[in-house]
Records
---
Amino acid sequence: MKNKILIALLSLALAGSLALSGSLMYVNVHQNKKVNRYISDQLERQAKEEEKLNNYQEDGYKVGEQYEIRSTKEISDAYVSGDESKLSEQDKKTLKLAKDILKSVIKDGMTNYQKEQAVYDWMYKHIGQGSSTTITMPTASGSDFTPGGVLVSHKAVCVGYATTFRMFMNMLGMECHIVHNEYHSWDLLKLDDDKWYHIDIYSDVSGHTQYQNFNMTDAQCSTGHDWDTSALPVANGVKYSYAVQNNKKIKDIYEVPSKIKKVLDKGKGASMFFTFDKKLTDQDMKAADVMVSQMQTAITTAGFDNFGLNASWYNSETEGEYILGLFVNKYDNGEQTNMDPKLVKKVNEIIAKAFGIDPSTLGSDLTTN
């Protein structure tokens, strides 16, 4: 955009110079040739950039040479128009599942950011955690990487998360791209500030770190992701980062350890974002680095062996001020669901009889992750 404005200004300058008369005309002609050459070079460069963007393959690309990013435009269009007549039977089933989910999480008067967060929260809680089973549910082909399969099995690889989230956002009228490299994919969403944000639900679920990869800038995303930045819009939005929208002000950096300990005592993971009464100094920033490193040691020493801690700095809406994000992660292989003991006993007895073994060798407890 800046280059286009510059080109426009140069063009105006060119027109103005041609209006000059007499002795300046010879000089202006040579200057104008240079300006024209510069404008042509800039236009050619922009054309190459736009061509690269247009050549970026989203739908049809296979991540890991296995999981294809498939279009869900017909489904989202049918939701918006209310006309399902052109959908396949499988797409109609997918649309029905998606509509029921949106009906349960979307409320009247929500902003686009609130709608986005509601969908993210539902997917974080329900996809890939606690609902998986040993036996694969009967779904469409590619159950873990297509929305139709994901919404039935509640299991997903990264492509499944990315395409399902994009489908929901398109249904809600928001512009959303899938960003990918050879081995991973996630989403890029445009919000009401006309800015773009990265969202990687798969990484948050697999890392037990809710909101750590939610509404990131390019700079934040690049610390753990790699993609062709020239092929997609720049993501530099700050207003709708979770850290900006949901931070708590505390006195200073030295209050942080007690906040972490309270979370650990509750036995659950948590995401916390802090701002401070006074602008942080360089010494405060150094103290924060040391503090996070030492707390990781303290967590293990204090017996919280299944917990981890990591942290990130986030930009605030005030230039030069930062928000500290802290993520207490509980590693327990996801939400466990204990089976009915009577059911386990009955199954064990039947299996033991069939295989001619002692039922006690099968154990008395069964959990599914």
Note: The first helix runs from residue 2 to 18.
---
Amino acid sequence: MRKASLALAAAIASAACAATSQRPTPVMNPMDSISKLPSYRAAHDTIPLLSASRIDSLREPERDAWKEYLRRSGARRAADTAVMNAELRGVGRSAMVRAPYAGSFEITKDMAPGWFASDTARRLAQNILSFQAPNGGWSKHVDFSQHPRAPGESYFSESAQWQWISTIDNGSTTSEIRFLALADSVRPDPRYRAAFLRGVEYLLDAQFPNGCWPQVWPLAGSYHDAATFNDDATTNVLELLTEIGDGRFPYVSPELRARTRSAVDAGIDCVVRAQVKVNGQLTVWGQQHDPLTLQPTSARSYELTSLTAQESANLMRFLMRLPSPSPAVVASVNAAAQWLDARKLWGYTYDFASGLHESPGAGPIWARLYEIGTNRPIFSDRNGIKLYDWHQLKDRRLGYGWYTYAPASALRDYAKWARGRARPLGTSAGRKGILPASTSSK
């Protein structure tokens, strides 16, 4: 579902608005420790969002909980480093070899029960098992169809450094866990179940003390350490853990189910508390939030601090599926629906390959990112300069989902969910003319 929504968000959209890395591979001496890489030093040395001074400014017991979390992250990082260094010594290498490249791994529609009984599915499952990192998670952008992971081979495809290992970005880890569960349901294998359980433990270990999740764990620094809603990372984790807590996987122990239920409760609380207020009014969420204050923050250079329509719509849909929503959850969903309903845009289409086009009668669609306070759609190239007009983009114009349809299905679900819980949405017809006259014909 996540993949479908992202593809839809990228393939269509509308022009809502008016005017708006690769790290170098270090030279490593033979047997040099991976832990000496800049991206893998101790958390308090390289992570401004979770710096020692910020942690020390917290009150007990919150301060102690975060210190323990950072200690566990550092210990896990050291254990991962030791495993890889041992592998490198065994094969006589000084650096990892990149994994085979592909796009994000996903469970596709053709992976039906009959397909999981095939030898192709079995080989893919074996390869996925081999790429499970020592910490229990998976990286991203790895072509699992190529071959099993070899000793000394990275778990990541785009660098020989230890990065993105492991992550919940782009559906990583949650997709592999689900795949192994499906494979086991057709061809039972204790190795699938063991890897499934290790993956669940990874998700539980990675959870912040406040209930949200970072993009990468063990912690990697920079925006990766923010509470991450971008690309539905946290939503994917909450959906999977909810299913586990509900008992959908018979080999999960009662103790682990209880822990996942507690994790989901904490996650929901963090999501609700992170919802952005503007002038005292609840709105929606950002792509990333400060892990300590839960205020919205930036992600990649072109993903500015903002409100996001796409990820907020999918968070809203998750909250609406809760069987007994609390008053705080009900208020959260109602506010998000009202905000999204007021942001409808009409008369445009958008796709990755060709960009933005006027299309009378098309829509509704939404911009991906909105300026906090003004609700104006915003855009940026990799230079990080805020723009209010998609047409002004240069190096980041195509290949990113600047517009999205995701709120449309969320609002349809809301119409049913809200009966007895909220006043009806207004009859907003949406807007076409947010593009300035000077650019509306482009």
Note: The chain has 13 helices and 13 strands.
---
Amino acid sequence: MYFDLKNEKLDWDYIFEKKRELRENAKKGIYPSQCEGCFELTERDWDNEDYISHLTAGHIIKCNSRCVYCPTGRIKEWHNTEQEYDIKPIIEELTNKNLLRYNGSLRFVGGEPTLIKEFDWLVDLFSNHNVPEIYVPTSGIRLSKSLCNALEKVESAAIVTSVDAGSKETFEKIKGTKFYNLVLKNLKTYLKHSKKKDYVISKFILLPNYNDTTEEIDKWLASCKKMGLIEVQFDAEHSVSSSTECENKKYINRTLKMLEYAEKSAQKYNIKVTSFLAFMNRAKAIYNKQVEQFNAIQDTVYDNLLLINDEELNSKVQNGEFSPKRRVKVEYNKQNKNRILMLLRLGFDFDLILNEFIIDKDILEILKTSNSTLTSQNPFIKLFSQILYSF
């Protein structure tokens, strides 16, 4: 859900009604099919009360950098326009209605969080209520006293700054500002105030033709060691890291080599590394494990799922009575359509049999959100349907 507010009040009854619906569906195993097998899913006890304990605040419009890899920085009508909304009244209303608890986290997202009008007020509020976690990704250009205090008081207060360079010249090319030395100075100040020295983190995003050299990485790691930082993050520029079919495909192998080099070099400085490469390897290992599990189980076709009632079906899904493949072979028609869509929400895939040529947007939705196929005994219907629903 999202709301485009222009001085209206949020309808909290409506929000929590929708939250309860999502929660009850999830208890029954009903969730978007694209969540199936996600390695971020965790098992924990359900909390049925209505409240908010995790708050994320941010805007994408105002920043004191203009990084070459930032998509919004290139949109002139957005970049550094004024914030048109106020966060404070929303937080005050949550507090007055006893809907906000400080047992979770306060997190920020971009543009530059420290330029949000209510940034210091929010950080002070949550710090004074002893929230367990505060997370701030920041350019490091503006030094926040409130954030310094939070680093001293909050158990898990962390900041991450993408420096992306080991020299002033490279920094200015990437960040579009001339504050390299100021950023390093402010990081050092944050580190001085932090309870946990590994919670002040400098980040290095590898960019083809900008900083993807061993020399730049070595200079950057040396500056991190000089500042006293003990943890860093490595990442790849989004168009390289997000897709194997990106325009920068020719740089992917070089990027991976640089990431491997960075991890090895950091060991010389006794610096801990968390990186895109580590994340990718973790995801790959979990994926391979899932593949092994899938291959160990024979393909199962659940034709009888169209016959049992919804309550029994939900119970079977919740009790894990199906193999991970969860595949249904079924004719697509008006009588079966609603049940097929319900099975889609439960994470099933389909071999959809078409006995006639059908134009239906729900077929496209099924194919987009699951690993399903179209088939027909009539070769012409099969061919034309596959062409129509290709995407």
Note: The chain has 14 helices and ten strands.
